[in-house]
Amino acid sequence: MDTMRDRLAPVVSRLLDEDPRVAVVLAEIGRDGFREAERRHPDRVINVGIREQLLVGAAAGLALTGLRPVVHTFASFLVERPFEQVKLDFGHQDTGAVLVSAAASFDWPAGGFTHMAPGDVALLDTLDGWTVHVPGHPDEAETLLRQAVAAGDDKVYVRLSVQSNGQRRAVDGQHFLPVREGRSGVVVAVGPMLDAVLAATADLDVTVLYATTVRPFDAAGLRRATRAAGTDVVLVEPYLAGTSTAAASEALADVPHRVLGLGVGRRELRRYGTIEEHTAAHGLDARGLQERISRFLDAGRTEPGQG
């Protein structure tokens, strides 16, 4: 199966042909996929070289002229390194673009920590007005990419990963998708975490929600799920642990609830290893998730006054 990133150049190249507003801005990374598009549209496929601050600034300038820029590089170079430009050139100037990242969290362990960005979504969370898509399958990535480009002048971040679920889901770019129903808690699986969550909760009586759009956070969807399953909520995210716990707590602010945020830990793993080894080390494989989710739900059932 191809990867999410494999879909990027073909999909966006077609959009370049279809829509004269679409432009692509690159910083060397990913340029090979756009060679043909660059020949067809030399004025709308722009490579700025290894200059990530310029990458964002140039995209914002194009947006100010009325174009819809698609901006692509690794997550660490797209969100973290040029964060000031993201904050000012898009946020302060009140313009938008589609930022599309690759090498999510620890997708390329051999690249070292300079090429890892588990804090990207949390960092964007400090800014106002960003839509954040986290697809879990290449087909979903294609759907969400098209929606993002068509989203007027909105600020959109699409987080692509080589990690993928085995099955595509019918995502709509807005709502959490119920995948399994239960009565002893709600587990929200974000993007490529769904397969591991389903395996981890196979013997647990929980509702599983699938989230591929995490900002705006589907508060209404979470509230609906908790009416039948209770207000013990576990969030399993493929980036920094706890990124969405505040959003979940806000959604349930008027009812007693408990929230557990699982994801990539803050401690840096200094050995390259493999994706699978990083996943297990952060407790995001099925075994690690099963242990932590079960422990959390059991604790809720045995709190003082409940036994």
From TrEMBL:
One Pfam annotation reads Transket_pyr
Q: Which residues form the Transketolase-like pyrimidine-binding domain?
A: 2-167
For this chain, one GO molecular function annotation is: magnesium ion binding
Under the heading CDD domains, the entry gives:
TPP_PYR_DXS_TK_like (cd07033)
> Gene3D superfamilies of this UniProt entry?
3.40.50.920, 3.40.50.970
Under which name does UniProt file this protein?
Answer: Transketolase
Species of provenance? Streptomyces capoamus
